[in-house]
What we know:
The chain is mainly α and 314 residues long. It has helices spanning 3-16, 22-34, 45-53, 61-78, 105-114, 126-140, 144-148, 179-192, 216-229, 246-261, 266-277, 282-288, 293-313; strands spanning 155-156, 161-164, 173-176. A hairpin with a 4-residue loop joins strand 1 and strand 2.
Amino acid sequence: MMLTHVVDAYLAKQRSLGARFESAEVLLRRFCRAMSNRDIGEVTPEAVAEFLQGKGSLSATWMLRYRVLSGFYRFAISRGYAASSPLPTTFPKLPPQQTPYVFSTEELRRLLDATSILKVGHRPHVPTMYRTLLLLLYGSGMRIGEALRLVLQDVDLTDQIITVRDTKFFKTRLVPIGPKLNQELVEYVERRRRLPLPRGEESPLFTTRGSRPWHYVRVISWFQHVRRAAGIGCPVGEPRPPRLHDIRHTAAVHRVIAWYRSGQEVQRLLPQLATYLGHIDIRSTQRYLQMTPDLLQAASERFALYAMEADHEG
């Protein structure tokens, strides 16, 4: 059976179970092209190993590709489309997972200013639209994919609430936003409505020239241009530069720092932060809270205040 036909069947099965499988589909289609769309039984272990390696140095992407192909071949074997799996039985030594980066307030300002470079080679609305995307990611803590799937009707500027549908865990949540971000969105939506709205209020909030939602890969690529223009390189000891996803980490850490400095009960508020970010449990949120110097200082100041109060009561 042709590889593309098996992929079609696998995607249909996954989506019948409620999975979106968007990123996996992109990878599987790329796998088909790399294998020259041959019969699934003709795919060799050597060709698969080359695909898993990719171009450049070995990275965590190897494991991502392996997991997608592993699920695909389990399906193919169970349905009789393949006799065995050509995937390797041993794993290479992968580099450590990239440490989440927390942007400083000054770096965030520079990123916003640097979006102006996107005016070169793009439509006039792209720099402003990308700047709004960065503000939204920081002000709401959304995942990138969630923001790119937003349509106009999801943004309630009167009640200052954004409806995030079809999240990572197939749930819908309401995300309240502050007055500053809301005002930015008021001005942005006004400009957005001057562009084509082929689906009315269901038109994408962030749109291409053809009125389609911005593609994840394009948005990630643009961020690297903006990051370089902002003068933000690799942190000391890190092999790779900060990612767009790190704005989500930054939003979480900055929120906790603000809670510490305003004397809030942080442990009591962490479950609320987990819900706000769309995490299924607090452990996922805790992984986001990298101990940055600012967070350490805020926690230290809070502990010192607690110790002084305890001494006074004693």
